[in-house]
Amino acid sequence: KSTVDKIAAGEVIERPASVVKELVENAIDAGANAVTVEIKEGGISFIRITDNGEGIPADQVPLAFLRHATSKIKKVEDLLSVASLGFRGEALSSIAAVCQVELITKTAGSITGCRYIIEGGQEKSQEEIGAPEGTTFLVRNLFFNTPARKKFLKSPMTEAGYISDIMERMALSHPEVSFKFINNNQTRLHTSGNTNLKDIIYGIYGRDIAGNLIEIKDFGSGGPVELKGFIGKPVISRGNRNYENYFINGRYIKSKIISKAIEDAYKTFMMQHKYPFTALHFTIDGSYLDVNVHPTKMELRFANNEEMYRFVYEAVKAGLTHREL
Ligand code: ADP
Ligand code: MG
What we know:
Blueprint: H1 3-12, H2 16-29, E1 34-40, E2 46-51, H3 61-64, H4 91-98, E3 100-106, E4 113-119, E5 122-129, E6 134-140, H5 147-150, H6 156-173, E7 178-183, E8 186-190, H7 197-205, H8 207-210, E9 213-219, E10 225-232, E11 244-248, E12 251-252, H9 256-270, E13 278-284, E14 289-293, E15 298-302, H10 305-321
Parallel strand pairs: 1-7, 11-13
Antiparallel strand pairs: 1-2, 2-6, 3-4, 3-6, 4-5, 7-8, 9-10, 10-13, 11-12, 14-15
Helix pairs in contact: 1-4, 2-6, 9-10
This protein binds adenosine-5'-diphosphate and magnesium ion.
Adenosine-5'-diphosphate is lined by residues 22, 26-27, 30, 51, 53-56, 64, 69-72, 86-92, 135.
Domain DNA mismatch repair protein S5: 201-321
Protein name: DNA mismatch repair protein MutL
Organism: Murimonas intestini
């Protein structure tokens, strides 16, 4: 593959966790309700992701690895009104440019599956194969052809930690999907896909946190912004923002406005100056969001920052003061 492709790949794929994030998002977009992620050596030498989604038709497999090949939305403006997480059509081409990829996939309508191998952007083989419905990606030896970039990776333990963070966020953002994460043959996370967010919080953070939550139930229901989920009682606050999780339309994001509104409410009503635990799901009308797409990340802005701040502040206040929700 050309240098241009390798550079472009570098923008999307920084480390094993980027591969996992992109492939898990694809699995969710494919309608999977069970996704298994297995890694070895922090994902540097081995990542296997199996889903039970719709699969890729054999004749479209090579196309999916072309740059800007996407079967999803066509317009950036549609980005948030539709549910799909992918939008650039860059992930597979970027991953294939810097790894050794083996793909096994089968759609419901096809009798046989397809096995496809592509390494460093070079197609190696495509054959018919028996396979269950869904898709498995085997991604080996990240940056095998760009040793200079491989040097910037951290230790396998640290890289595995980044992947674990991604898996936890995926589980929290999609309670309806069963996720399994296996690191060096040990199961690290397993959610049932039973849609109960509290159970997932328990599985990830344990009893101390799951036992000290305040539920926010359908705040703003019927309006352009709806909020539900959990906020932590002050006893489980922390010295950093690591426990502040919130998701907009199923996507993990960071927002200064949202964080500030949450923290200000805790300060005012709990006299608490540390950072709270939150796991909040926002459903926001596309017209209420402003999207800015970079090569690697999507930056969200709100049509009206002040209104958004107010909304979040009031929701958290209601939770903390046990007013009607
Ligand atoms: P994007 O997600 O932005 O469309 P990707 O490069 O991530 O681009 O994927 C390219 C295409 O490959 C997707 O649009 C989809 O059609 C197909 N694809 C990728 N992964 C899967 C999967 N796990 N199941 C079904 N289709 C997939
Ligand atoms: Mg994608």
